[in-house]
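From the methods appendix. Each design record in this collection lists the tokenized structure first, followed by the designed amino acid sequence. Records were kept in a plain field format so they could be parsed without special tools. The example shown here is representative of the layout used throughout.

RECORD:
FOLD TOKENS (95 positions):
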């Protein structure tokens, strides 16, 4: 994801949240301001779904549940615009 146009930063968390689920990972992706990029946020999301998430789903069809979601506008953790989730019963064996 870091190589996609408009992506400036990524942050991976594993086992975060109130329940601290150890096989749940999230990736925060920071984008450049819309006026500084040629690709819309929706187009980037579609590209991640078709190129990145699809590849992992194909490699591990019965082991992963993935989702691509917008971060809630009101939350306790900053001003993120997108988060990506990669879920598996065993993240070690799928890496």
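DESIGN:
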């Amino acid at each position: 994801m870091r190589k996609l146009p408009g992506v400036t930063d990524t942050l991976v968390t594993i086992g975060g949240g109130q329940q601290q689920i150890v096989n749940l990972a999230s990736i925060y992706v920071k984008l450049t301001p819309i006026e500084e990029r040629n690709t819309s946020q929706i187009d980037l999301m579609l590209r991640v779904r078709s190129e990145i998430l699809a590849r992992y789903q194909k490699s591990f069809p019965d082991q992963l549940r993935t989702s691509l979601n917008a971060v809630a506008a009101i939350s306790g953790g900053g001003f993120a615009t997108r988060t990506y989730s990669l879920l598996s019963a065993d993240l070690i064996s799928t890496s």
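APPENDIX NOTE: The radius of gyration is 14 Å.
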